[in-house]
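From the pipeline queue, job 12 of 40. The input is one protein chain; the requested action is below.

Action: predict structure.
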Amino acid sequence: YCTKKYPECEFKFIWDKNILKNLTAFSGWSLFGSVAYIAKGQGVNVILNIFFGALVNAAWGISQQVNAAVVTFVQNFVTAINPPLIKAYAQGNRERMFSLLFNGMKYTFFLAFTLVVPLLFETDLVLSLWLKNVPEHTVAFVRYTLVVIMIELFSHVIGTTVQATGSIKWYQIIVGGILFLNLPLSYIVIRWTDSPLSPMYVAMALSIASMIFRFWNLYRLIHYPLTRLFSLFRLVLILMVCTLPAVYALQYGLSEGIGRFFVLLLSNLLLSGGVLFLFGTSKEEHLKMRTYASNFIQNYVKRFTRKF
């Protein structure tokens, strides 16, 4: 179709050693990172099966299903950021790139936070509704998994930025190496503690270490402003301080049930949205939100008045 429709489009074989070398290196290091990520999850799966059998293995499998659901939910938002982020880097528009990167990490954390917090507080209820018989250790596995997700949230947007630069070799070596450590360290810790929950402590520690390196590598590659990083950490801290105690108080004061879960979900959403609006948005974003809200209300009022 292209060769027929567009005269400037033609097909021919090209053998360019430099392009082939760059493509092979990029795909090879990307493959290394993917293998390391698989080893992190499936390797622990194998170790738990060896030491504790099928029941604990089933509990771990359920926690990984929760992990896949939450990560997929977040990645749907990150996927929309990837093209403009890569385009901004290719054009050399650093301010645009910094803005997209900051907003991507900010809103990614906000979206996950609104979903993860109610799940953390109501894990027993959600699992009991989902499963008839909840295997032992499932609740603990799911909660630790959700915490690890929150720690690793920023990696999705940072990974896209690193890929845009093309300099992924040391990023994949170090991050992949840290992820690979999850396998032998989990084996050692299980032998030492004889606890099926010990791999989750290892995963949390390694997630923190890999996230520190990701931020350092982000600064090294594109000289990302430290002031924006501190602003991001400040927002995350304010969000947790203002939201978690209120959600805990509601859980403590309300009787257990599906109604309490939805109350926690709605309360966490409203509180998080309020904190984000007050402390995490610029004047331009305030103006856009107000304009959007005003237009939405006006359109709704017009539709309502037309009926009468």
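Job complete. The chain has a mean pLDDT of 84.
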